[in-house]
Amino acid sequence: MASHDASPRGGRTLRGRLMAFLTHDHRYVLLGTSAVAFAGMLLSSQPRPALSFLAQAYTVEVVLYYLLVAWLVLAAAALAYKLTHWRSYAECAPFTRPAARRVLRYASYAVWAVALVLAVDRLVMGLASAWMVATTAASRPVDDALASALYMFYQGRQTFITGITTTIALAVFGTILAFFLALLLAFCRIQTIDRSDNDFVRFWKVLGVDFAKVYSAVVRGTPMMVQAGIIFFGGIALLRGTGLTTSEVNVVWSPFIAGFVTITLNSTAYMMEVLRGGIESVDSGQMEAARSLGLSQRQAMRKVVFPQGIKYAIPGLSNELVVNIKDSSVLSVIGTFDLMFATNSIAGIYYQQLQANMIAAVAYLVLTMIATKLLTKFSERLSAQTGPVVVMSDSTVQAEMLRASHDRGDV
Predict the structure, then answer these.
(1) Contacts of 164 (CB under 8 A, 6+ apart)
(2) pLDDT by residue (tens digit) across 250-263?
(3) Residues 267 and 178 sit within 8 Å (Cβ to Cβ)
(4) pTM of the model
(5) At 56, which helix (H) or strand (E)?
(6) Is residue 136 classed exposed, middle or buried when 0-12, 13-18 and 19+ CB atoms within 10 A define those classes?
(7) Theoretical Cys-Cys bridge with 343: which of 12, 27, 275, 360, CB 3.0 to 4.6 Å?
């Protein structure tokens, strides 16, 4: 029995085992495929779109529909037999025989194929039909909600593209700059008083720690929308105090710049805490090993602890980009021409708030999915889940390598 887990079958992934279970256990084949068959029947009952390829094959669709009905009848019969032969079902049910299970498995494939055909005909071709109507209509279709939304997107595509581009620029560049600022603040935040520090160094360490704490508490304790208003209007007030006119202030301090500053400063606080968590997750023996080799606290932190802490913090840091893509929507309150500002502009033109926001929801979903996929690949390339690169002080090999590097002057 112990060797079973080590076998190739026991080493399957969870997804592979689940698929094998659903494929070979006839009860779950009947149950799961019945849900698919019912969904296919619902799709078949929907009106055919203009580009439907089944519109000219009515007889074929009827046959497909009744194939789904036949599967549901078979599943109902199996369920009734199960209820009436609860204890002896496994021994006497005709559905449990090897030949019957094989037939059911192949029949379930056919049901899935029928449902897929109906899904393509009703959903995919329905979307294509609505897009064709939206791109050729002289005015917004009022009877078809999907065509109406696509018409708004098509007519306002340049506005949406500008908003999406601005959202990506704010999120990407704001997150990158925030990362470097967070590195600096995280370094200040984790400082401790060393015995060799003089009074001047001690003062700046205490000041840096206190500033990082207050900054994190203030930024993380207030909404980004409020921060955007303070930064934007506060910047205007400061520039006007220098004697600049309103037009000159608008050139120097635009809503885009204020939004960029807002995202950068907001992300800095959160990324600082992520970095601090990653650094504190490094085993304390790493610092002890480095100090025992003659490295100062600053050298040990920069050469040993910091690289490992950043690796541990990569997943959390990557997630901040996804958060910024979504949270940048609040910057529309100060006039930043992001995706949300573009959505409100299009909604104001057509007086259709629901449909415009549905377009924005799809756009944000696509952006976050792409960002999540790319960041996952990036984290895998950096091996974010690997262990420490410098081992504990009881490892002679790594300690000697570090000592040799120190003697050469590399550390």
Answers:
(1) 339, 342, 363, 367
(2) 888 999 999 999 99
(3) yes
(4) 0.76
(5) none
(6) exposed
(7) 360
